[in-house]
Each structure stands twice: as structure tokens, then as C-alpha cells.
């Protein structure tokens, strides 16, 4: 990496990158201990019921799996590739897996914690409420997919290919969108296609969140739910 990419790096610049990587690893280990040690204590004291024990085991397993994925991802950036003339970088597939598992871990932790702290509202199962719930789940999946596509953008440095919006260069659809063969390979390995997909998914996500907000306004919902939907729209716009 030093010979092919950063041969002019100073010692101070190297230390800055090293300490960022080191801090990330140490923070990850602190997060693991923050999960496992209290979980073991609560388990030993008998404060966890049977369903919660399953949740705790799953979350602790996800923490360990996340650390393993991080090691596996970094390893891909250190491997020698004699047939490649590209700059050293981690695999975009492993980066997406690392980010995806982190999102799952965070979401599962938040869901478990809020389920314990806040009582669930008993709402009448109307047709509109069922549609809202289904639409919310679909929007969640779309946002998750958009975030994963961002990992592919980062892994391939695809953000450097085009820096104009809404067009990519002078065109709405770039010429090299399907330059790789077979066609499916473009979605994961062609930087132009990866950036194009991320743009489309981002626009689709903000559209879906906005539609979810306006649809929720037509349904009588508890104050906490309204605050959640409004906050979602605000954060989506900020993003």
C-alpha cells in the first residue's frame, strides 16, 4: 500500500490514520464488553426471562460476528494481488457485509431496548393501519438497501467518478453503465453503475419516507408514533 498509493506520506500523516484505525478497533471491543458483561451479570442474577435470554444471546452473537466480519474485511485490503494494478482497498462485498451487520445489530438493540422501556400501544387493526405498517416495513427495507449500496460506493471509490447532480456528467444515464460483462457484474463492481444505483435508491428512499409521512397524517395515531414518523422525515431530508 505504501509503495503503490502513499509513498509520499509523512510519519505524522501515517500516525493519524493508524490512530483512527486503532480507535475504531478499541471502540468496537468496548461495545462488545458493554454488551457481554452486563448480559452475563443480568443472566446470573436471574433478571432475564426466557424470550429475553434468546434476544441477549442473539445480540451477543451478533457483536462477536460483527468483530469477525471487521477482521475479514480488513484482511482483504492487505492481501497481495499480483494480477491487479488497482490501488489497495478492502473488498466492497465485505465492507457491505460489515456495514449491514452493524445496522442489523444497532436496529435489534434499539428495538429490544425500546420494547422493554416503552409499553406497546394497543391499536385497532384497521385496514389503513395494516397498510401503514406494511408500507413502513417496505420503507425500512429500502433504506437498508440504500445504506448497503453506499458501502459499495465507498469500497469502489465510486463517489469520485461523477460529482455532478442530478445528471452524471452531461448525461442522465452514463454511457459506461453496463460496460462490464456479464451484465449482473456491473451492479457490484462497475463504479459508474454503483454510483448510479446509489443515487436512484437514495431518491427512492426520500420519496418513500415522504409518502409514508403524508399517509400517516390521514390515520389517527398515538403522539409517540407521530413523533417517530415526523423525525424520520426530518432525518431523511437532512441526510
TrEMBL record:
Record field: catalytic activity: Fe(II)-heme o + 2 A + H2O = Fe(II)-heme a + 2 AH2
Residue ranges of the TM segments: 26-43, 55-74, 94-118, 139-162, 198-216
Recorded GO MF terms: heme A synthase activity; metal ion binding; oxidoreductase activity, acting on NAD(P)H, heme protein as acceptor
The keyword Oxidoreductase appears for this protein: yes
Keywords annotated in UniProt: Heme biosynthesis, Iron, Membrane, Metal-binding, Oxidoreductase, Transmembrane, Transmembrane helix
GO biological process: heme A biosynthetic process
Annotated metabolic or biological route of this protein: Porphyrin-containing compound metabolism; heme A biosynthesis; heme A from heme O: step 1/1
Lipid bilayer topology: Multi-pass membrane protein
InterPro entries in alphabetical order: COX15/CtaA_fam (IPR003780), HemeA_Synthase_type2 (IPR023754)
Subcellular location: Membrane
Main location: membrane
Entry keyword annotation includes Transmembrane: yes
Protein name (database record): COX15 protein
Species per Swiss-Prot/TrEMBL record: Vireo altiloquus
Amino acid at each position: 500500500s505504501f509503495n503503490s498509493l502513499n509513498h509520499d506520506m509523512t510519519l505524522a500523516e501515517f500516525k493519524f490514520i493508524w490512530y483512527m484505525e486503532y480507535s475504531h478497533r478499541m471502540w468496537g471491543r468496548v461495545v462488545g464488553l458493554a454488551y457481554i458483561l452486563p448480559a452475563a451479570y443480568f443472566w446470573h442474577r436471574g433478571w432475564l426471562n426466557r424470550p429475553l435470554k434468546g434476544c441477549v444471546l442473539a445480540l451477543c452473537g451478533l457483536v462477536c460476528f460483527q468483530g469477525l466480519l471487521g477482521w475479514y474485511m480488513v484482511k482483504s485490503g492487505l492481501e497481495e494481488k499480483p494480477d491487479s494494478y488497482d490501488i489497495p482497498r478492502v473488498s466492497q462485498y465485505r465492507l457491505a457485509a460489515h456495514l449491514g451487520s452493524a445496522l442489523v445489530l444497532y436496529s435489534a438493540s434499539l428495538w429490544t431496548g425500546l420494547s422493554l422501556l416503552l409499553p406497546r400501544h394497543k391499536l385497532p387493526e384497521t385496514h389503513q393501519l395494516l397498510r401503514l405498517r406494511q408500507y413502513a416495513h417496505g420503507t425500512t427495507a429500502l433504506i437498508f438497501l440504500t445504506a448497503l449500496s453506499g458501502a459499495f460506493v465507498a469500497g469502489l471509490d465510486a463517489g469520485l467518478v461523477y460529482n455532478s447532480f442530478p445528471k452524471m456528467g452531461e448525461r442522465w444515464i452514463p454511457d459506461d453503465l453496463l460496460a462490464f460483462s456479464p451484465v449482473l457484474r456491473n451492479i457490484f463492481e462497475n463504479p459508474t453503475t454503483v454510483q448510479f444505483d446509489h443515487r436512484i435508491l437514495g431518491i427512492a428512499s426520500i420519496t418513500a419516507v415522504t409518502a409514508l409521512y403524508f399517509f400517516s397524517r390521514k390515520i389517527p395515531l398515538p403522539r409517540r408514533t407521530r413523533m417517530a414518523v415526523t423525525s424520520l422525515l426530518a432525518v431523511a431530508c437532512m441526510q
